[in-house]
Structures are given as C-alpha cells and as structure tokens.
Specification:
- With 196 residues, the chain is an alpha/beta fold.
- The protein has a domain at 2-127: HUPs (Rossmann fold).
- It has seven helices and five strands.
- The chain has a five-stranded parallel β-sheet with strand order 3-2-1-4-5, sandwiched between helices.
- The longest helix has 17 residues, at 96-112.
- Bound molecules: coenzyme A.
- The site of coenzyme A has 25 residues, from strand 1, helix 2, helix 5 and helix 6.
- Homohexamer.
Length: 196
C-alpha cells in the first residue's frame, strides 16, 4: 500500500530529545507523510528521564505538528515497525564513528525483517557535535544548553538538575554550590513550580 510507505519510524532513546533529532524529524517530512518518533523502553542505557517523561517531552515539542506522532515502544524495533504498517526506519548519521554501529543494527534489523529498510539522513552540521549524553553532562553542571535542545526540554533539564527554571532570553544565574558528599544539596529544587 502506497500510503504505508510514507510512514517513517524514527527510533531512539531520546534521553532527552535534542535539536539534532528535531532537525532529522522535520527534514524527513519532506520525504514522508508522517514520522513516528518511537521512544524505546529497551535501549541498553540507563536513562535520566523515565519512558513516560521522554515521551511527554517529545509530545510537547511536537504538539502542534499533526504529522509527527510520538509513541513509546517495547521489544524489538522491527516488530514495532511492522505493527505500525511501516517499512522504513529512519536514523541520523552525525559522523563516521556513528556508521559502524548503525551499519550493525541496520543489518541485524534486516536479518530479522527483510521487508523493513533503514534510511539514513546526514545530520545537519550545526548538530554534529551534540548527543543526549553531552547535553545532559553540561546541563547537570549548570552549563547553558539553550539552543541545543527544544525550549521545553531545556526547562525539563533545568528542573531535573535542580536549577531555577529560566526563560529562553534570560541569562543563566550563577551556579549554586554543588552538593559535596555529606553536605546538604544547595542546588535542590527551591519550591518553585517545576515545569516537568
Ligand atoms: N543529533 C544529535 N544527536 C543524535 C542524533 C542527531 N541527529 N542522532 C543520534 N544522536 C545521539 C543520540 O542522542 C544518542 O546519544 P546518547 O548515546 O548520548 O544517548 C546517540 O546519538 C544514539 O542514540 P539513539 O539515537 O537514542 O539510539 P540508541 O542507540 O540509544 O537506541 C534504538 C537505538 C532505540 C533504535 C535501539 O536500541 C533499538 O532498536 N532498541 C529496541 C530493541 C531492539 O530492537 N534491539 C535490536 C536492535 S538491532
């Protein structure tokens, strides 16, 4: 069915969603009618955000885009793709270093379900250096990751690491003293409403 070929499944851990992911998703809409952002429960990673939180963050980011749907999935990716009557897995490639891993999982997925293809888009040069991990690391130390993640994700990172929520145009406040072992956590949430 032609209509089924126009659905792309973009799987990942999305812990959290970054602007690199957003860029791949929006560009894919030039090729597909619909992109399903498939948030994996089974990733082999220990995420900072729960599955529900990762889905919720992405849903909020794409709330006004009806051709982008966010769903959690469990189990094998290829089974999930088949359950959605889709034939294409979408992945982004940032660097040569991504290639070996992506090559391996795409071949494994093809072995499991030969009818499902993996399509790679080269990440935009602006996002070549970011990953969810590097964004989390910087955010956890109070660094400014605005512009690297959607504004809502930025607010969630601030809240998760106990920093004051700040607007996108506000300067980042000086770092609170980090909690040292055995000392009370000076950076704990201060009672303001948390956005996430
Ligand atoms: N811009 C910025 N960062 C990007 C990016 C882009 N365009 N594309 C990928 N990344 C980053 C991600 O943020 C992530 O960073 P992190 O490692 O710091 O978390 C990293 O590159 C790649 O991770 P991600 O895209 O989340 O994929 P993953 O490798 O964590 O997960 C799944 C891959 C979810 C697709 C895979 O685990 C899966 O299919 N799981 C289901 C079970 C299954 O079928 N397993 C068998 C597969 S053979």
């Amino acid at each position: 069915m032609a209509q089924d070929k126009r659905i792309a499944i973009y799987p990942g851990t999305f812990d959290p969603l970054t602007n690199g992911h957003v860029n791949i998703i929006r560009r894919a809409l030039r090729l597909f009618d619909k992109v399903i952002v498939a948030v994996a429960a089974d990733t082999g990673k220990t995420p900072l955000f729960s599955l529900n939180e990762r889905v919720d963050m992405a849903e909020k980011v794409f709330a006004r885009e009806s051709d982008i749907v966010v769903e959690p999935f469990q189990g094998l990716l290829v089974d999930y793709v088949a359950s959605r009557n889709a034939q294409t897995v979408l992945r982004g490639l940032r660097a040569v270093s991504d290639f070996e891993y992506e090559f391996q999982i795409s071949l494994m997925n093809r072995k499991l379900r030969p009818d499902i293809e993996t399509l790679f888009l080269i990440a935009d040069y602006r996002w070549l250096y970011i990953s969810s991990t590097i964004v989390k690391t910087v955010a956890s130390l109070g660094g400014d990751v605005r512009g690297l993640v959607p504004d809502h994700v930025f607010a969630c990172l601030r809240a998760r690491f106990g920093f004051d929520p700040v607007g996108v145009d506000e300067p980042i406040a000086p770092l609170p003293s980090p909690a040292l072992p055995g000392q009370p956590d000076a950076s704990a949430p201060n009672g303001r409403e948390q956005p996430c």
